[in-house]
Amino acid sequence: MNQTSYIGRFAPSPSGPLHMGSLVTALGSFLQAKVNNGKWLLRIDDIDPPRIMAGAIESIQVTLKAHGLIWDDDVILQSQNSQYYEHILSQLSRQNLLYPCECTRAQIKAIGEFYSGTCRDKKQIQAPYSLRIKNQFNISQINDVRLGQLEVNSNATQEDFIVRRKDGLYAYHLASVADDINLGVTEIVRGEDLITATACQWALFKTLGKALPQCLHLPLVRSADGRKFSKQNHAPALNLNKTEENLIVALDHLNLPVPKHIPQQTQAILDWAIQAWADSTP
Ligand code: GLU
Description:
Distance between the termini: 23 Å
Helix content: 25-40%
Number of strands: 10
Structural class: alpha/beta
CATH architecture of the domain at 7-79 and 140-160 and 182-280: 3-Layer(aba) Sandwich
Radius of gyration: 20 Å
Bound molecules: glutamic acid
Oligomer: single chain
């Protein structure tokens, strides 16, 4: 197949097994990549060792394969990319755009909901400290492929966010943007809960002088009480004996109800979904 330059990715954190919410994101990003004749990469966000659940990295891959969601190229593990994150940090440091911050969450909360740059001009810092970026961008809108122009909370997105944590670990925004740049990702497909994160990350792309990828935010799956399906909320793991049913439910969430005449087989459902997704995309 002739591939265009479209590169998409699914980037789960291995903090637990995949659940229906993750399947919707995996499927939505997979369909976008297929419809655009592009690559679909699997990136495992394993930069936070205390949050990694034993066996999750393997179980994510087994689960995706069982649902016919086969990624291109080798799996990318963020834990292997420290060198590149350091490279990005030193670029920011050379630009004089990083500063150490010793504030605790409680101190920030006591002043207001958002970090107001307390340590920007501090001369003396006591360890331990995190590294924050001097955020020069005030992203108040993002252009979403599915949802159009979106307003974002600019208090959150103009914050000097953390790029390296007090415990020395790389922060999510830094690692995600660094990898999206390094992998040449052209479109980021993720859940609607990450709209604010996308806007913060846009600031980082711009700071690094990189072109913005496109973005597409997918609807969230919620439990009966309205909470987002997540590992923290103990969303049940996908049952691998029900992959066809799972795909049908996930496609329903993506507004693609599978017609009854489609054979209840993983590949047949996916083939139908690729066509249906293409037909429903403007
Ligand atoms: N690994 C994160 C998550 O699962 C981020 C995904 C992303 O950057 O799209 O929520």
